[in-house]
Amino acid sequence: MQFHPKSCRNEREVESKLIVQYLLPKLGYSPDNWYQEVIYGNIRLDFLTIASKKIKNLSSCVVIEAKHPQENLDHHVRRLGHYLMKTKSFYGVLTNGKEFRIYQREKDKLKFIFYCQGENIANNIDKINSLIGKESLSAKFSTSQPLSVPQVSQPSIKEFKKLPMKVIAIYHHKGGVGKTTVATNLAAAFSNQGKRVLLIDIDAQANTTFATGLIKFQFDDDDDLKDKNVFHLLESKVNSISDIVRKSQGFNKKEIDVIPSHIMLIDKQNELARYASSRSRLVKKLELVKQEYDLVIIDTPPSLDLYAESALTASDYIIVPSDLKPFSNQGLLSVKNFLEGPINDNRDTLGKPPVKIMGVLPSKISTHHQFLKHRFPQQRQVISDRYNFPVMENMISERVALSQCINQTIPVGELEIPAPKSIFDYADSVSSANTSAAEFESLAIEVLEKIGA
Ligand SMILES: Nc1ncnc2c1ncn2[C@@H]1O[C@H](COP(=O)(O)OP(=O)(O)OP(=O)(O)O)[C@@H](O)[C@H]1O
Ligand SMILES: [Mg+2]
To answer: Hey, which of 170, 305, 364 would you mutate to test ligand 1's pocket, going by the most ligand atoms within 8 Å of its Cβ?
Structure first.
């Protein structure tokens, strides 16, 4: 069996034609020596090979990550490193069919040990075999540990497990702090990491709906959201998530499921407020899709209204984006009162534990060197010392790429049609967006660690 990169037109084909049909057999792995879509703690690996089941840890395993042929592999190296750290395995493959790379982990660093173009994989198969083939890894790890590899306590293969769906609200009572920017790009980061993501917009401004490419219509008559949006989930028992959900449009190479919002939410609030049941409806509807998604991200309005209440009542965690300025800080007190009052009361009635504050996420943070060195650490400290909120380790800097990516358009005749992009897709064509993309990727890793703990 030969392999031709041109036969891989998408990620599925890279997985099936390159990895399953060509590479794994060539490297000596039979179907009972490899696993696809492996859940390990809170991460999902595309493939994991096991050189020898006699070796009771993952050191002889190879993590293989397949990407779409148009994906830039550089964007996935950090994540591969995280997977190798988490599984404590030493070898990782990253390929999009056009390029083929092998990495080796040394402590917490990744070393690039092999590269070739897709069309040269067959010519290099002996070399690849000597690095990550079943026989060579089995021999290497069943005798003594290789010199370059540290002795570490390693998890057992039995630890593979499925993490239950988690719901995370991106919330702050203060407006304009970056909630929508964080919700949309974090959802894209998770989706790019292979998570099954549902993004819910429950803000009447519908900015997440716009950002994910669902508001491209120019005239009221073309509004295809008015009869199917988040209001229809809250209003009655009848509509389910699958009745309302849309695929994101042109936003991110890996599409995301989105529950859109609509400006009509403003007028409908009084109607919903008459029925106490509307506040718990989202919880119940999410319960019905818990097998279909790994993560649900909810973008919320900057208020304490019924929509915010519904969203937070349905959430296991909240992330609070904040520019760390005085008004945002003072708003944290009402966030806390809101959570400790109506939200946790609602959750208690529904038999749910209190919502967890994952942390305040420093957002729209100046990249000015002096600021970052002196003032920013003080600002972070104030959040934990004075307001008693945890602070996320990662932050999102203020960068024009993050506001530009949402404002992309394409000309159609005389009109400019919105064509918003995730920061990851934008980074494919605008290199200055790479830093922000990396910040979101790193944030996603922190969030996964926090929910897996
Ligand atoms: N890190 C950032 N760097 C640069 N611009 C940003 C950043 N985050 C957000 N912005 C810009 O700031 C504005 C407000 O951001 P965003 O809409 O995400 O905030 P929000 O908290 O959702 O606002 P609202 O409370 O109105 O829903 C937008 O124009 C957005 O493009
Ligand atoms: Mg918003």
So the answer is: 364
